[in-house]
Write a structure and sequence with these properties.
The mean pLDDT is 88. Helices cover 53% and strands 17% of the residues. The protein starts with a strand and ends with a helix. A 3-stranded antiparallel β-sheet has the order 1-3-2. The chain has one domain: Alpha-Beta Plaits. The protein is built from 3 helices and 3 strands. By secondary structure, it is α+β, with helices and mostly antiparallel strands.
């Protein structure tokens, strides 16, 4: 079923490129909407895979807005998102 999720820390096309690349491996094609705040991703996903998606998003630095994070986790995901964004920008520049 196609579902949309609101996510944190997505700032630009570099972030979107990282999300598309990293999530495609496990979840297939991902749409990233940079026109709304908070940013949204849309993908075909079954309910039983949502926890796996949440974990993957956190590992990239882009948790769901509905995730309850400690201050330490929030700082950690923000730092990870900067790295993920930079990687996405570098890979886009190579294209």
């Amino acid at each position: 079923m196609k579902q949309t999720f609101e996510i944190r820390n997505v700032k630009c096309g570099g972030c979107a490129a990282t999300l598309k690349k990293e999530l495609a491996k496990e979840f297939g094609e991902i749409e990233v909407n940079l026109e709304v705040e908070p940013r949204q991703i849309t993908l075909e996903i079954e309910d039983e895979k949502i926890e796996s998606l949440k974990f993957k998003l956190r590992s990239l630095g882009y948790p769901l807005t509905s995730d309850t994070l400690t201050t330490f986790q929030n700082i950690g995901t923000t730092a990870k998102s900067f790295v993920s964004c930079a990687i996405g920008k570098m890979e886009n520049d190579k294209s």
